[in-house]
Amino acid sequence: EIHTMNSIYAVNTPYPQITGVCSPCDIRMIMDLYAGRTGELTSTTQYLYEHYVIDGIDEKISQTVFGLAKVEMLHHALLGEAITKLGGDPIMGGSTCFWSGSNLKYTKNPICFLQNSLQSEQNAVSNYRRAASCVKNSSLSELFLRIAEDEVLHIQILEDLLEEISQ
User: Fold this and answer.
1) Gap between the Cα atoms of 63 and 102, Å rounded
2) Which of 81, 83, 99, 147 is most buried by a 10 A CB count?
3) 76 and 41 in contact (C-beta within 8 Å)?
4) What is the pLDDT of residues 85-142, one digit of tens each?
5) Separation CA 16–CA 3 (nearest Å)
6) Residue 146 near residue 16, CB atoms below 8 Å
7) Cα 52–69–46 angle (5° rounding)?
8) Alpha carbon distance 107, 86 (integer Å)
9) Cα–Cα distance for residue pair 40/31, rounded to 1 Å
10) Interior CA angle at 80 toward 76 and 90, to 5°?
11) Can you state the angle between helices 59-85 and 24-35, rounded to 10 degrees?
């Protein structure tokens, strides 16, 4: 189990341990955050794609999106562990469909993909905060809010990077 991450791309506070039980409805909510169309699996692979297409062209963007990918991968792992611990099956899919590579936005333009990622991070914050207010399990709610803190940091990182490359 992973409970902290030493990285400039993650907030320096531990991730809460999952305890207790949860309803099938709550597990479906975790599934969407974990590997739904806009979940952590999509975020991880989106940042990896961006890293691959910009690597060797712009090292700062390449390293930034790679660092963000690692944190999104950690979020995916934390949610997968939570799903398992709470009695669910951590398949690579949301509550309604399997995950697909068609969930990604395949643009090679760095300004375009950073703007897309910024929008995705803003949506993730909203999704995590909404999920935290809906689930009955308090440790799960705390995990969602802690992950949202990383996503808020990602918004700041992306805004700063976009401002820097737009000058």
Assistant:
1) 24
2) 147
3) yes
4) 999 999 999 988 999 999 999 999 999 999 999 999 999 999 999 999 999 999 999 9
5) 7
6) yes
7) 60
8) 37
9) 10
10) 120
11) 160
